[in-house]
Amino acid sequence: MGAWIMEETIESKLEEYELINPPEDFVKQANINDPEVYKRAEDNPEKFWEELAEHIDWFEKWKRVLGWEPPHAKWFVGGKLNASYNCIDRHINKRGEKTAILWEGEKGDIRKYTYNELLEATSRFANALKNQGVEKGDIVTIYMPMIPEAVIAMLACARIGAPHSVVFAGFSADALADRINNAESKYVITTDGYYRRGKILEHKNKTDEGISKAETVEKVIVVNHLDNEIEIKPGRDVWWHEIIESADSTCEPEKMDSEDMLFLMYTSGTTGSPKGIVHTTGGYMVGTHVTANWVFDLKEDDIYWCSADVGWITGHSYIVYGPLSNGSTIFMYEGAPDYPDKDRFWEMIEKHKITIFYTAPTAVRAFMKWGSEWPEKHDLSSLRLLGTVGEPINPDPWWWYYKNIGYEKCPIVDTWWQTETGMILITPLPGITPMKPGSPTNPFPGIKASVLDDEGNKIEPGHGGYLAIERPWPSMIRTVYGDEERFINTYWSKWGPDKYMTEDAARLDNDNYFWILGRVDDVINVAGHRLGTMELESALESHPDVVEAAVEGIKDEIKGEAVFGYVILSSGSKEDEKLKQELRDKIVKDIGPIAKPKGIVFTDDLPKTRSGKIMRRILKAITNNKDEGDTSTLQNPEIVDELKRKVKELD
Ligand code: 6R9
């Protein structure tokens, strides 16, 4: 086990003692408040999930709950259903006039879709997609900001059985091109542009640039969001509003097999290019539906806001599929949290009487830094539940969130999960679980999580190890798109094919609560966004002056981690600010603004093993000014002090 894991263990141990019971009034009304549910799930997990699957509408019932040939799972085998039907059609009789999507633009403009309207908009667009040639099984790339059409596009794809691949709008043209090429996607849905901090972002230009590096694209559908002048390529580009005009307003939902792909979501991993995580229909819908209902305690009159972007898994599972399959009203916001001022979120929570708010620890840390005077200007008493996701939340921001936003009456659900897990796996149930600031508490009922050593033995509470999931769950990853070998090697080979390797380190405390210690692979978690060191390094290395580059995560007060680069230049290149700026720009261009390095150090060498492999553990220690531990296996131990000095000089 790496030395850093042990070290983190000691640091985070101090926080263990606090146990906060969920507020009594909350418990009384909670959807789930009987702890017996854990026992019931444990006694017979398959039966437990089978009963929950009844909460989804099926055209044909499954024949078998689970087919498990490790590491391949099939859930609700033989079942037929449609995700868009479950998110829309089945609510029409009971809540057709209820608001499904409540959207606010950065400029303050508001749009609403009732479930009836969402059905019509989705059906029309689904037919328009068909008219453009999209067929069942075609992967459609969605490259859109936070506007209602992004959700409508996802649901329309699901309706006709065309898996979507949503690419975060903040990603670069190159990142878009990689994802289109990997999915061999022929269709792209985009917008002319959108607002961010009052500025127009020319999104269509970026889309065009990405497509110019992609081979497969035949049609591009453009939403007119801003009404600004853009170039339309005849024959390739069509306007959303034009193609829906002639499209029929009813569209029969395709009867999808439980194991048909619902979507692809790219995420960063240890090596090379991003992986296309494949999620299928039946298990994913059951998993997200039930977790949304139990973890967020969704009720008929809730106004639910998950502030994630639809371009991430959190947006898929807990803006779209989970809440809409529950018939909830979801709130969406287009822009930045500090525009026009630092109380924008609180202003909207007050105005729309939002009841549930789910955000990232990085956001909470920023709010805390901005100060409690911002939320104090607003009445946030409509809130009844708060959540976090994406990275560990330290106790300070947890308490700040609990007091200043939740008025000490809202439980906080700290939810641990991943793109690959599809649904929340470790979390409090807000009507049952006493909270501990900084811990996601316990596995969801039916989930078997454990902390293991390299050999797969259970690790005693108090010590760090790898977080493993030892039993299949409905919304689990099915494969890596086009790369079955990578699927097996990454997730199912450390301890054999029946134990899922999360690539997180964790430990248990004496109450059997889980504490997440961070990633063990080469992934940097910047504000809850996973960035692969390999991608970042190849961006730097593609600069003509760079011979070799290494990238590490550096602790950052707001973002949790930020990118820090070490660069070896070719002889004759000048080590100056101008070059540093070029390297920063290169990363922003290749990956996106979130990846912009906090610091760059020029060096002649990197800490390497005798076989020439960069020792990540040591580089991480250097970057974060920690004890580097044993350096005896380095071929060049003297580099450690030299780099430490250079990093310090940057401060
Ligand atoms: C949903 C999502 C997954 C990685 C995961 C872990 C970190 C997520 C967390 C958390 C501590 C939490 N992570 N939730 N760490 N506490 N509550 O974020 O998916 O983008 O795939 O990231 O995020 O390291 O492995 P994804």
Protein model, in words:
The model is unreliable at 1-15 (pLDDT under 50). The strands form eight sheets. This protein has an eight-stranded mixed β-sheet, sandwiched between helices. A seven-stranded mixed β-sheet has the order 5-4-17-16-18-19-20, with helices on both faces. Strand 16, helix 13 (313-325) and strand 17 form a beta-alpha-beta unit. It is built from 22 helices and 30 strands. The radius of gyration is 24 Å and the shape is globular. Helix 3 (36-43) packs across helix 4, helix 7 (115-131) packs across helix 8 and helix 12 crosses helix 13. Helices cover 32% and strands 22% of the residues. The chain is of the alpha/beta class and 651 residues long. The protein has two domains: 25-336 and 411-505, Rossmann fold (3-Layer(aba) Sandwich), CATH 3.40.50; 527-650, ANL, C-terminal domain (GMP Synthetase, Chain A, domain 3, 2-Layer Sandwich), CATH 3.30.300. The structure holds ligand 6R9. Ligand 6R9 is lined by residues 267, 312-314, 389-392, 414-419, 440, 502, 504, 516, 519, 525, 528, 530. GO terms for molecular function: 3-hydroxypropionyl-CoA synthetase activity; acetate-CoA ligase activity; AMP binding; ATP binding; metal ion binding. Its EC number is 6.2.1.1. The modification N6-acetyllysine is found at residue 613.
